[in-house]
Amino acid sequence: MSIYSQRIKELQRLLKKEKLDAVVINRPIEAGFLTGFYLDGCVLLISKTNAWAFVPKMLFEHFKYKVPFVEAVASNDIKAGVIAEIKKYKFKIKKTVFQPETETYVSGMFWKKHGLIEKAGLTACLRLTKKGAELKAIRKACHVAAKAFLVIKSRIKAGRTEISVARELEDIMQAMGATGPSFDLIVAFGANSALPHHETSMRVLKKNEAVLIDYGCIYDFYRSDMTRTFFYGKADTEFKKVYSIVETSQKKAVKALKSGIKAAFIDKTARDLIMDEGYGQYFVHGTGHGVGLEIHEAPTVNSKSKDILKEGMILTVEPGIYLNGKFGVRIEDTLLVKKNGCEILTK
Amino acid sequence: MSIYSQRIKELQRLLKKEKLDAVVINRPIEAGFLTGFYLDGCVLLISKTNAWAFVPKMLFEHFKYKVPFVEAVASNDIKAGVIAEIKKYKFKIKKTVFQPETETYVSGMFWKKHGLIEKAGLTACLRLTKKGAELKAIRKACHVAAKAFLVIKSRIKAGRTEISVARELEDIMQAMGATGPSFDLIVAFGANSALPHHETSMRVLKKNEAVLIDYGCIYDFYRSDMTRTFFYGKADTEFKKVYSIVETSQKKAVKALKSGIKAAFIDKTARDLIMDEGYGQYFVHGTGHGVGLEIHEAPTVNSKSKDILKEGMILTVEPGIYLNGKFGVRIEDTLLVKKNGCEILTK
Questions:
Q1: Contacts of residue B61 in chain A, CB cutoff 8 Å?
Q2: What is the ipTM of this complex?
Q3: Domain with residues B132-344, CATH architecture
Q4: How do strand B22-25 and strand B96-98 relate by DSSP bridges?
């Protein structure tokens, strides 16, 4: 049985447990998780015993070829087709659900109008911890990214643009087997590194400037995420001090990671250290986030998070200090939560 | 006055015309259209006379630097901040709106819960036809893509993978000034070309196979979209025949394009010709779509479209015939609708 058939079976077990008849899946990433087919425009209808896919005519042959284990229906009016099928099989409409967190307003309102009800977190629950092929893919994506840094670092010279470095880093990762970058890579020189989401530009590197690279790659649909900061030239005392604080903060938070811990505690661990050093106001974002099919997914690692860490979760720890107009330092790794600790995957 | 200030003013004129007090803008592409700041996480509140941006702390300095003409508020709870501001300024809540087509289900329900009402199409109306800087950017994106094809075509040889061709095409476009590809480029060899949304793979090109390349690039946030199909080696009679039908269909539809025409008529023009030749069942998608900040946007060019073409619209015309297991042919250009005709931008 393919991993996709297994995932559909797991979802069907969840439906039984929750005493639901069926769920509509209307988001490419969720449909892709269940079928391996990630293209936009398909809607799945999963009942306790069956699985149908409603597919635009233009994707029908493609879908049938890639997903032989799901009954595909070619349709020109996908959502109406789903509703007709629900009626045909006499699923109790009050027990047929859509997942609010995965719908657009227009599609969610459509399901609602036809009597379906909200039920959050069914596929999210299956995606929350990673195992088997997922873990293998993430490991590879992390390993490729970490290795690529060693190559690109030696090629970063005064006179190069941020964009040229980003592009070469993508090339290096692709040559190592990645299928693409896991997001718009951030390469930031000098004061640009003080903008946490700097947009990689034609800015040229000069001698004695900070270099921040936030990047990752995709392997078999799964992503990696990591950040490295260094000083090109001779770092001054302030950079050295700030770097050392961020590094200590990141290491401490990583060391605290293990199954059963509150995600908010990881944030507090990283943040307290930076606050104690007097830089609290310059750490302007949460400490981390889950990574998987999406570059940001559950769990959330910030001060408001209610998430509890579990074995098999993949998440980032990425404290940073941003001194506007001067430089920023962020250090980020992707980690696998284990029973009594964690494993750094981006190394 | 910047183009962004002008766009905000145009939106404010629309609010007055529609007798509305204010609108929330909660989608990066719409917020970017109005401010030039496209990063995720900001919400704009535009009233008849003012404009506020609610920005996550981590993006605050970045936003202030790039968008000095909008009053920025750093917030850790963006949507709650917007609601508080609406109350503070005593906008009539029943005259404060959100755009249903731009919201997720969760955020749309949030606005609704707080009394805001639905009003579709405000920013869509401003984005529908292109002028000035927008048109200039699209022209450049189209020109770069068209020029790049001439370079890549001569480099496509037996033994190359689809992925290597896609990657090199991206490089060529970037070297010509593009900031990136406008979507996941489709490079399809042989029978893969019969899948309209083939996922570019490690498939190697052999002598005497069809090559289909659906691609485009981004310039200053605006996109181009075009497809070229050719035969590598000596084309057989069937390929030549199908290619000729698609080419004639595309040319006829392009010739019919002008302001005032129904989009559905363009679809009918392209489709009738293919149907008359006996290949109707193999033309499995609509004839085209608008292009701009998004690769698919208004207008829609298919048999069900209610859109009327207007001067300044940018759209694709892309008929195709897909013979499953054999090959597919699609020819696509991006075009500017004019008063008495159209201009092909991808040449």
A1: 194-195, 322, 324
A2: 0.93
A3: Alpha-Beta Complex (3.90)
A4: parallel
Residue-level pLDDT at A123: 97
Residue A93 has pLDDT above 80, yes or no: no
User: Per residue in A250-309, pLDDT tens?
Assistant: 999 999 999 999 999 999 999 999 999 999 999 999 999 999 999 999 999 999 999 999
CA distance A271 to A290: 18
In eight-state DSSP terms, residue A104 is: B
Minimum CA–CA partner of B168 in chain A:
A171
Closest CA in chain B for residue A109? B105
CB contact A303 to B (< 8 Å): no
Residue in chain A closest to B328 (alpha carbons) equals A58
Q: Looking at chain A, which residue has its C-alpha nearest residue B325? A: A61
d(CA B159, CA B178): 28
Q: How many CB pairs under 8 A join A and B?
A: 77
Cβ contacts of A108 on chain B, cutoff 8 Å: 105, 108-109
Q: By the CB < 8 Å criterion, does A174 face chain B? A: yes
B3-126 falls under which CATH superfamily?
Creatinase/prolidase N-terminal domain (3.40.350.10)
Q: At the fourth CATH level, which superfamily is domain A3-127?
A: Creatinase/prolidase N-terminal domain (3.40.350.10)
Q: How far apart are CA B20 and CA B12, in angstroms?
A: 9
Residue in this structure with the two tokens 């073409």, named with its chain if needed: B309
| Residue A169, both tokens | 């880093």
The string of pLDDT tens digits covering residues A320-343 is 999 999 999 999 999 999 999 999
Residues of chain B with CATH 3.90.230.10: 132-344
Asked if B59's CB is within 8 angstroms of A196's CB, the reply is yes
Question: Residue A335 forms beta bridges with which residues?
Answer: A315, A344
Q: What is the DSSP string of B33-54?
A: HHHS---TT-EEEEESS-EEEE
With a cut of 80, say whether residue B325 has pLDDT above it.
yes
Sorting pLDDT into bands at 50, 70 and 90, what band is B92? Answer: low
Phi then psi for residue B111, to 5 deg, are -60, -45
Cβ–Cβ under 8 Å, residues B119 and B18: yes
**Cβ(A344)–Cβ(A306) below 8 Å:** no
Q: Which regions of chain B carry the CATH code 3.40.350.10?
A: 3-126
This prediction has a pTM of: 0.93
Pairing type for strands B288-290 and A226-232 reads unpaired
Q: Which residues make up the CATH 3.40.350.10 domain(s) of chain A? A: 3-127
> Which of A58, A113, A300, A332 to mutate against chain B (most B CBs within 10 Å)?
A58
Asked if residues B319 and B196 have their Cβ atoms less than 8 Å apart, the reply is no
